[in-house]
Amino acid sequence: MTQSDCHPWQRQNSHQTGFPVLIPGALYQLYDSAGYWDGLQFYLPNHRLVHFRRRLASIMVTPLTWLLGSRADQLFGILMYHRVVQPIPSIALPRESVTTRRFRQQMQGLLSWGYRPWPLRKILDYHNAGRSIPPKTFLVTFDDGYECIYHEAWPILRELAVPATVFVTTAYLDTDHPLSSDRWAKENAERSPAIWWRSLSTEQCAKMQASGLIELGSHSHTHADFRTRPEALRADLQTSLGVLRDRFRLRDATFAFPFGHCEAALAKAAQQAGMLCALTVESELVDPRSNPFTWGRFAVESYDTAATLATKLGGWYSLAQNAWYRLRRLNPKSGRGHP
Ligand SMILES: [Zn+2]
Question: What is the Å distance from ligand 1's center to 169 Cα?
């Protein structure tokens, strides 16, 4: 028996769903209801405060995974990355990025604790065949298609044999300017390495695809805001699929919503455009029997460790989050809405 076999997260006590939701909810209450955290709003910009609270929540809920094991026996989790970068002392890391070192630690940690990375298409095959998925299955995905994925994440994925899906924004392949949606790049492109914001090239994508480890998917053609515009999304995705067909010989494609915006009409448009699935940013585990045009993903934050990711993949993070929202709705003094 190896050391990893003994790790408490190896336990498969999946029948914890009856565990009172008040306990994780109370953990959230501990950090969230105290006026102290609200006081921080005077000192931190709102997005930094949200970041801080999520980080604290991840850390506080993590012991539940140690103590109780995974809740995710029949479910799986999808991780969503954007950038993987080598930090530079004089430049603050872009939002939605993890360092190369941290990325390696996350992957190595999850693998050593028995988590199994699967390709998205394999999961879809199992979904279509009505087959169940083994415990501790998870997926790795990258949105936007930044060049740093090729230089920083790809060598680690290859070394550790971790399959992943890269959702590329097809209009930006081979271009030399940032995505129009990338506000960080607009402010920082000139003083940061180009691979942090430039899109992948066709050649880089083809190399990763040829390995058999990386699937290319669509993140739309233009990364526009398609809310309430399903027809526009459908046309955009047909263009995107055309690019993927011409350059990478894909007959069909997986898809992740730009900005995570998902509406029933948009999901239908994606299906009509020939997409195989439409991934959202709902922080929820996925039931493989559910509609793949609603599957959520866990955003990986810069502070996430293998331990906090195991907590997300183990189901406790979502449970705590949901329990907390429920508690807050019951609290008449709570004037704030859903974050
Ligand atoms: Zn995006």
Answer: 8
Residue length of the chain: 339
- The residues near 223 (Cβ < 8 Å, ≥ 6 apart) are 144, 169, 171, 172, 179, 180, 181, 258
Instruction: Single out the residue of 79, 300, 95, 70 nearest to residue 187, CA to CA.
Output: 95
The pTM of this model reads 0.79
How far away, in angstroms, is 36 Cα from ligand 1 center?
34
**How much distance in Å is there from the Cα of 224 to the middle of ligand 1?**
9
Angle between helices 306-313 and 100-112 (to 10 degrees): 50
Q: What does the pLDDT profile of the chain (339 residues) look like in tens digits?
A: 333 333 333 333 333 333 444 455 555 544 444 333 434 444 445 556 556 666 666 666 666 666 666 666 789 999 999 999 999 988 888 878 999 999 999 999 999 999 999 999 999 999 999 999 999 999 999 999 999 999 999 999 999 999 999 999 999 999 999 999 999 999 999 999 999 999 999 999 999 999 999 999 999 999 999 999 999 999 999 999 999 999 999 999 999 999 988 889 999 999 999 999 999 999 999 999 999 999 999 999 998 999 999 989 987 666 666 666 666 565 544 433 332
Q: In this structure, are residues 69 and 15 in contact, taking their beta carbons and an 8 Å threshold?
A: no
| Structural domains in the chain plus CATH codes | 19-69+315-339 (no CATH), 72-314 (3.20.20.370)
Q: Is the dihedral of CA 192, 196, 201, 204 positive or negative?
A: positive
User: CA-CA distance, 73 to 315, in Å (whole number)?
Assistant: 10
Query: Which residues have their alpha-adjacent CB atom under 5 A from ion ligand 1?
Result: 143-144, 258
In the reported structure, the alpha carbon of residue 258 is separated from the centroid of ligand 1 by a whole-number distance in angstroms of 5
Closest listed residue to residue 286, CA positions, set 137, 108, 116: 137
